[in-house]
Amino acid sequence: MRQRARLIVLGRQGAGKGTQCGLLAEQLGVPHLSTGDLLRAEKEAGTDLGRRTATFVEAGELVPDDLILELVTTYLGGPDGRANGYVLDGFPRTLAQGQAMFDTLGAASLDVAIELHVPTSVVLPRLAARRVCRRCGTTSVAASGDPEARACELCGGVVARREDDTDEAIARRLALYDEQTNPLLIWLDSRRILTSVDGVGSPPVVHHRLLAAVRAELPAAGLVDVPETSDLAGAAG
Ligand code: AMP
Hints:
This protein is α/β, with parallel strands linked by helices and 237 residues long. The chain has helices spanning 17-28, 35-44, 48-59, 65-76, 79-83, 95-105, 120-129, 167-190, 203-217, and strands at residues 6-10, 32-34, 86-89, 112-117, 130-133, 139-141, 150-151, 158-160, 194-198. It contains nine helices and nine strands. Helix 7 (120-129) packs across helix 8 (167-190). It binds adenosine monophosphate. The site of adenosine monophosphate has 18 residues, from helix 2 and helix 3.
């Protein structure tokens, strides 16, 4: 059986990682695993791990590496996790996490790392305008003058800023990306598995660029059939 792709996608908060990872995972037929979503789900479910990590998430701080590794190995630790492939969104985020991923899961746990590059000046206003339905998770963009909270048109839940999208927490997370994630990018680049994709543009245009990057990297490793970008309806839009 053909192996499934194992990708990580890195990028500043607000770069559109969640949307793009969802599209990419669907296209490649592999699960989309977001550590941020998993942490929010653990908190929602009231698990021990959810309780131990919630204060870090709410303050915009990184969750300590040992707790994140506990979370990730729970989902990827078994042979099935790796064989089924994945698009990992939000992990690894530090050099220590990247090295631990290789130590724990092996170098074969990663085929390609993609940095979705969007400058701080672009993500800052995006994050301030981001609204998320607390019930169904649908993300939307608030226009200036919109109320801070409203009812979700899809499910009636409360649509508001994410708890960690306060101005202070946003500034903290962006500073942490420069401090903690840059050394990881340099390390991945030195292993020749990092490719950078311009993340500024409409979602279909960025998706088209991402698929082109994956096509360029994965077939060389004899891994997957990546659909032709021209198969994507509206991708060039
Ligand atoms: P995200 O949804 O990717 O913006 O993640 C939300 C929050 O979850 C981050 O601000 C961190 O508090 C935490 N988090 C997610 N992934 C990681 C990670 N790999 N390492 C440490 N903390 C993380």
